[in-house]
Specification:
Strands 5-4-3-6-7 form a 5-stranded parallel sheet, with helices on both faces. Helix content is 62%, strand content 6%. Helix 21 links the parallel strand 4 (534-541) and strand 5. The protein has 24 helices and 7 strands. The protein is of the alpha/beta class and 681 residues long.
Length: 681
């Protein structure tokens, strides 16, 4: 019978996949787009909000700059997409920015990119889930009242889906992602058609509000600084673009071509939706402020500020309409699913870092469903911690965002420039040289632009929370460097030398005795069978009465092994045994001591709590003693035998039987009288 843990695991994750089924988990472009592009696509749901609320600090008149800010963000998007199309062709192995920086700029640059991307992926999950809750809360007030719980629940659900496997999660996310694209693009087209073709006077619910500036005394320098801060917030729309370069191995062949095509689709859709939403916001007079209670000085009583997409949907489709709820629903859903980009990028990057010995090797191991389960679980726990710490506030979390991604953007483009320079030194074909020079020019422009954005982000967001993300990157960088040093040190210690190993001069065997019962007799017999140079049994005198019973039973059975009693005035068991073993070996450093520990094998999880606790503590201490070998001698209790029989019966039901099923006979009860056979030497 399967354990409750196994049943729960199969229910949540499904049956395990064989390793040779890995090719069946590869993604075609139609599934890869929602899997890897949902983060960048979903940014159109909160990037416009961040642009408008930052501009609102200077008052309603500053909204006139929103189209220009959006245009600048679109230029950066085009540049980054064009640059990363070069990356996926040059480095299709899935290392992405980390591989590019490591190969061309050195391990330290690669480690810096790796730490930046890990932090950015964690923030992607936290920001996306929080933004999804905020958008859903604009339509359903109950969600807004319990947004932390809903955000955590969304992360748990996404974790479960991704643990089931890449292809399965991609199929589940394809429909809502495409629904979001259709609904948002449709809303933009309908709104523009009504405004510019039909001539309808569409006014957003916030158009009639009177708002005041938080900072109404901004100087020219202060206003320029505000525009730069707005631009850096709008650049959140670029997060997730790098995930495709990290996920190239998950595409179906031809991998690089399919990844480059998906990048192009991602960039085009993101720009169309971002520009369209800001355009409609200006056409409908939409206003969105950072602090409604402070900045809104005249408007309807009990006014509740809704997100930009929700206001546009209400303006275009009407309050209470089905399409309004559809826009709110798919927007919230795509924001939740945007975290899936990180759930696919983080485990792959973690696997590569683990393979390079910068992370624990468990991150390189695939789970039952051929997903990197440990990376997925680590990402979920870290994101939940951020959501709880920042109370699922998107505006607070967004200040930590995009620092890491622009660090990786800039270093990656610098690495690609060196990559093309190295190839140009050996390439002689004129046509190929022209293509390489064109690619180098694209990467050079991308490096200059993303480096400029990085400087702007650091200047405008450092005190607002970006320093926290930078601190995380430094800590992760240091931890990964320490892990690499540890693995290198262990590798040096374990490296075989030319000297032949020195054989132990003698082997002293020690059998631990708590009672004279069948497990003890089996351990004594097994120890005798190994033919040690010396053999002794040891019991610890914790209670004089129990010790006398053991001694009398030992003598009555005439067991041909001496029994040593070790006193323990403070009733401790582990310490006296360790001291005794040390004393046995102290006489000759070339001697070894083999300690035989009888243990029960139980069939139920709760029985482990009732047995073997002392044995576990003793073994844990003995493992640190040089020259000491620990041997467990198992004794199967009836519950473990019944469990094995149940498994045998289940295997018979799965295999067609050729004859009548016969239940294997149970192992006979251990004798309890004086006729117990004594161990033979």
């Amino acid at each position: 019978m399967a354990s409750p843990t196994s049943l729960a695991k199969r229910l949540l994750l499904g049956r395990p996949f064989r390793s040779d089924k890995l090719q069946h988990t590869l993604l075609p472009k139609r599934i890869a787009l929602p899997v890897f592009a949902s983060d960048a696509l979903s940014s159109v749901a909160y990037a416009p909000d961040e642009i408008l609320l930052t501009l609102s600090i200077a008052g309603a008149g500053a909204f006139v700059f929103s189209p220009w800010i959006t245009l600048a963000v679109a230029v950066v998007m085009v540049t980054v997409v064009a640059s990363y199309r070069q990356n996926v062709h040059a480095y299709p192995s899935g290392g992405g920015d980390y591989e590019v920086a490591t190969v061309n700029l050195g391990p330290r640059a690669g480690l810096g990119v790796g730490s930046a991307l890990l932090v950015d992926y964690i923030l992607t999950v936290a920001v996306s889930s929080s933004a999804g809750v905020n958008n859903l809360g604009s339509v359903v007030p109950f969600v807004a009242e319990h947004k932390v719980a809903f955000a955590v629940g969304a992360i748990v659900l996404l974790t479960s889906l991704n643990l089931r496997g890449l292809r399965e999660s991609g199929t589940a996310f394809a429909i809502p992602t495409y629904a979001f694209i259709v609904v948002v693009v449709g809303m933009i087209l309908i709104g523009l058609f009504r405004v510019y073709v039909l001539g309808d006077d569409l006014r957003a619910p916030s158009a009639g509000l009177t708002i005041t500036a938080e900072e109404d005394h901004l100087t020219s320098f202060g206003f320029a600084y505000l525009l730069l801060r707005t631009f850096s917030s709008g650049c959140a729309a670029l997060t997730g673009v790098e995930a495709i370069s990290n996920g190239v191995p998950a595409f179906k062949p031809p991998k690089s071509k399919n990844a480059a095509t998906t990048l192009l689709l991602l960039g085009g859709l993101s720009i169309v939706m971002l520009v369209g939403i800001i355009w409609l916001a200006r056409a409908t007079g939409l206003q969105y402020v950072e602090d409604p209670g402070l900045q809104i000085v005249a408007g309807p009583d009990n006014y509740v500020q809704k997100t930009v997409t929700t206001q546009l949907a209400e303006t275009i489709f009407g309050q209470g309409s089905l399409l309004l709820y559809l826009v709110g629903g798919v927007t919230a859903l795509i924001l939740f699913l945007a975290a899936n980009t990180a759930f696919n990028g983080f485990p792959v990057l973690g696997s590569i870092l683990a393979q390079d010995r910068f992370l624990p090797r468990q991150f390189h191991t695939r789970g039952d469903r051929l997903a990197f389960s440990n990376g997925i679980l680590f990402l979920a726990v870290a994101a939940i911690a951020l959501v709880v710490a920042f109370q699922a506030e998107t505006t607070r979390l967004i200040q930590l965002y995009i620092v890491g991604v622009f660090v990786s953007f800039t270093l990656s483009q610098g690495g690609m420039i060196r990559h093309w320079n190295r190839l140009l030194r050996t390439q002689r074909d004129p046509a190929r040289r022209r293509r390489m020079k064109r690619s180098r020019a694209i990467n050079a422009f991308g490096m200059g632009l993303t480096g400029t954005v990085l400087v702007i982000v650091l200047i405008t967001k450092f005190l607002l929370g970006a320093w926290i993300a930078i601190a995380f990157m430094v800590v992760i960088y240091a931890v990964m460097g320490a892990i690499r040093k540890h693995y290198n040190r262990v590798s040096r210690e374990l490296q075989p030398t030319d000297e032949r190993p020195v054989l132990p001069s003698r082997n002293h065997a020690v059998v631990l005795v708590s009672k004279v019962h069948m497990p003890t007799l089996r351990a004594v017999a097994y120890a005798q069978a190994t033919r040690p140079d010396t053999l002794t049994a040891v019991t610890v005198n914790v209670d004089d009465k129990d010790t006398r019973v053991i001694q009398e039973e030992w003598e009555r059975r005439q067991i041909p092994v001496p029994l040593t009693v070790v006193d323990s005035p403070y009733r401790e068991i582990t310490g006296p045994i360790i001291d005794f073993v040390k004393g046995v070996r102290r006489s000759s450093p070339r001697d070894v001591v083999t300690v035989f520990v009888p243990e029960y094998v139980v069939g139920r999880w709760w029985e482990n709590l009732l047995h073997n606790q002392s044995a576990l503590r003793i073994k844990a201490r003995l493992l640190f003693e040089p020259g000491v070998m620990v041997t467990s001698v198992p004794w199967q209790l009836r519950s473990s035998q019944d469990r094995n029989l149940d498994r045998f019966d289940q295997s018979l039901t799965r295999v067609p039987a050729r004859g009548p099923r016969v239940r294997p006979p149970a192992e006979p009860e251990p004798p309890t009288d004086d006729r117990t056979p004594e161990p033979r030497p």
